[in-house]
């Protein structure tokens, strides 16, 4: 799905990823589950570019449906993988993900239906360790948004009015909502509100669900008020 001339969304069976274009350079934000490499390569080709244009891979967190193909894509041309220090061990296969706190029957049913079917991720080295507050080469500010995982991050492009939330925020049937399967639900709510407080966000891109394509700051604040 081409969102703008610079922004493309890739949908997978579970979750999604994004390509951000700066001239001849691409940034891949999340990678989808293991085995998503061919779909990513096809999306890059659809932009008239080669996979060598992927200059960096930024992971919003270390779950298998977002970091699963990181090792595969990194192996193509050595694009450095960026991840928050609290999720580095998860991405590198050194520890399992934290157990989520499932707060409702529907969430437990959803977890049982989806998560066992996500293939395990191959361990992937993390080349750039993030701590929050950095401004990356393509202009994105890294915001620590723990709660879904300890090392979840959002990426904010203030000059372009774009926010990538990872799984801290989701969309379902037209409703913006707190992401599910959170390791610390109360902390996840705080992280949602931190992102809703950002000014000038026009486009919000989620780890699951349709993006908000206009007026995202107002939409996020309305949703945050209901938490």
TrEMBL record:
CDD domains assigned: yflN-like_MBL-fold
A Pfam family of this chain: Lactamase_B
SUPFAM superfamilies: Metallo-hydrolase/oxidoreductase (SSF56281)
InterPro entries: Metallo-B-lactamas, NDM-1-like, RibonucZ/Hydroxyglut_hydro
Occurrences of domain Metallo-beta-lactamase (ranges): 14-208
Protein name: MBL fold metallo-hydrolase
Organism the protein comes from: Actinokineospora fastidiosa
Lineage: Bacteria, Bacillati, Actinomycetota, Actinomycetes, Pseudonocardiales
């Amino acid at each position: 799905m081409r969102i703008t001339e610079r922004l493309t969304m890739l949908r997978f069976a579970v979750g999604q990823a994004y390509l951000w274009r700066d001239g001849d350079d691409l940034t891949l934000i999340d990678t989808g589950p293991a085995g998503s490499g061919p779909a990513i390569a096809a999306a890059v080709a659809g932009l008239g570019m080669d996979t060598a244009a992927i200059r960096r891979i930024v992971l919003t967190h270390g779950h298998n449906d977002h970091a699963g193909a990181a090792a595969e894509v990194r192996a193509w041309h050595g694009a450095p993988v960026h991840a928050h220090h609290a999720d580095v061990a998860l991405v590198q296969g050194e520890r399992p993900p934290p157990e989520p706190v499932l707060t409702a029957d529907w969430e437990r049913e959803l977890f049982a239906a989806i998560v066992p079917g996500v293939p395990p991720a191959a361990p992937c080295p993390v080349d750039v360790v993030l701590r929050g507050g950095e401004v990356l080469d393509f202009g994105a500010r890294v915001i620590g948004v723990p709660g879904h995982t300890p090392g979840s991050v959002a990426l904010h492009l203030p000059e372009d009015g774009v926010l990538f939330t990872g799984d801290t925020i989701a969309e379902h049937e037209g409703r913006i909502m707190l992401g599910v399967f959170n390791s610390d639900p109360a902390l996840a709510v705080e992280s949602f509100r931190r992102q809703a407080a950002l000014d000038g966000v026009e486009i919000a891109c989620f780890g699951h669900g349709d993006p908000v394509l206009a007026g995202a700051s107002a939409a996020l604040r309305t949703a945050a008020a209901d938490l």
